[in-house]
Amino acid sequence: MIQKYTKMNAFKLKLLLFSGSLCTMGAIQSQTYIGLQQSNYGGIHQANLNPANIANSRHRVYVNAFTMGFGFNNDYLSLNMPFSVQQLLTNKVPAQYHKNGDPNAPVDFQDDWLKESVNGKSKNLNLYSQFRTPGIMFTLPKGFAIGLQYKNTISFQINDMAEPLARLSKYGVDSSKGNTLYSGPNQYKVGERFEDNAFTVNFNAYGELGGTLAKTIIKNDHLIVKAGFTGKYLMGYASGYIKNKGVQFRLPNKDTIVFNQTDVEYGYTDPAILEDLKVVNPDYFKEKLKGAGFGYDIGATVEWSPEGTKKLTNDKNNYLLRAGLSLLDAGGIYYKNNLRTTHITNSSDKYFDVTGAFGSAWSSTKDGMRFTDSVMRTIFQIDSAYKSVKTTMPTTINLQFDYNLFKNLFIGANISQDMRGKKSIGIRKPSYLVVIPRFESKLFEVSLPMGLMNDYKTGRVGIFLRIGPVFFGSDNLIGQLKSNNFYGADFYFGISSGITSKSKGKKKS
Predict the structure, then answer these.
(1) Are strands 488-500 and 59-74 parallel, antiparallel or unpaired?
(2) Which among 113, 206, 117 has a CA at the least distance from the CA of 155?
(3) Which residues 6+ apart lie within 8 Å of 161 measured at CB?
(4) Is residue 282 part of a domain?
(5) How many domains, in total, are found in the chain?
(6) What is the DSSP letter of 99?
(7) Which residues are paired to 294 by β-bridges?
(8) Low-confidence residues of the chain, pLDDT below 50?
(9) Domain coverage including residue 459
(10) d(Cα 293, Cα 283) in Å, to the nearest integer?
(11) Cα-to-chain-centroid distance, residue 493
């Protein structure tokens, strides 16, 4: 039974990694939207980088019709195909890689195209989707600006999973070879103690209704100082987490797991929602709310234009150099409704028989979670006293810089530092550092964000392109198209437009 069950889950993991990568190529850290939010024509989107930026902006009125983004990355398994993604998208994959060698048949994806990164380091996975609408921004008299927007976000993360456990997840438990616990390259034996398995898992689906107020505090020919604040009402639709500090176990045979030293905490809301979770679902407002909370963004921006730079800079700008500092996504959601929490501690042998009921229950996510929870409560001493759980938002400190090289040419920089850490209950946003060269005008814009993503570990070259009100972007599109070996992908697109303000050319001294 355990052989069947774990092989099934290994397949699901592989399918998730493969389909997540493939789907992102066709459509979904890190939800950064770097090119869009750095743009002077970003309107209400600029508030997501620094709420101060909508004050004294390019637009009198700006409306976001819709924006969608999807993303997936991990640092353990890469999809290593014998052809590039560009060949896949343009239907130029050689016939030998199609089923039965028929170029008109689907591509025959092979299990061995998933390659491991085995380096002794813990593994991480990040999957998200986000939908933004409606969104609107107004410039008001006396230097004020206001904005309103709604976001719907679904995020799933695995952080700091020990490499042996990640490999166990990939290869599965297979007792068919006598005393072999699983069929991977570094095989564990039946009866051997397995203990290097710490990790955290976080899942959150929530809505965010935010109102932004920004004001220009100082404005003269050479200096502008702006400040802004966004208050958010957070609507929790579903949440789940696992904090595994360590579990020691062994398999004396293929149908029994013996647990020893254990320290695991987990909690979740009604898992039935996982089988009907949509990025866009208006029913959430009336029947899906499991928790609520408040959050905020706060920021300030300085724009500097020294004497003699008017002929070099864009006359619609008020700056040669812009610098900003913001605290983003502070706050959290308190889940109370339909919440189940469990803290397991154990120091003696506990026997868990893996029977047919276990495998049958996991044919459905919600039934599997409920069955496993019931079994855990039967064999362990547990603490379920928690009446509510706070899921923290992915708080970051963000530094922004932008330099107007000449007229419509700019070079920006963005540094984002995670403030939550990998052990917290709640989604975190991996840290990054990017440089953003760009050309921008009212009707056309292109930028090439490039830098270090995923906690400064992975080099990326992305793109942002806007033609009129239509835009799309990716933090790594260029690398994804040309590579046949990638660990993830991301993409965002939308339609937004506004009425621009009059020229902000500087007065003559």
Answers:
(1) antiparallel
(2) 206
(3) 76, 122, 123, 124, 125, 169, 198, 199
(4) yes
(5) 1
(6) G
(7) 233, 332
(8) 1-30, 505-509
(9) 2-76+117-190+200-236+267-343+354-500
(10) 19
(11) 16
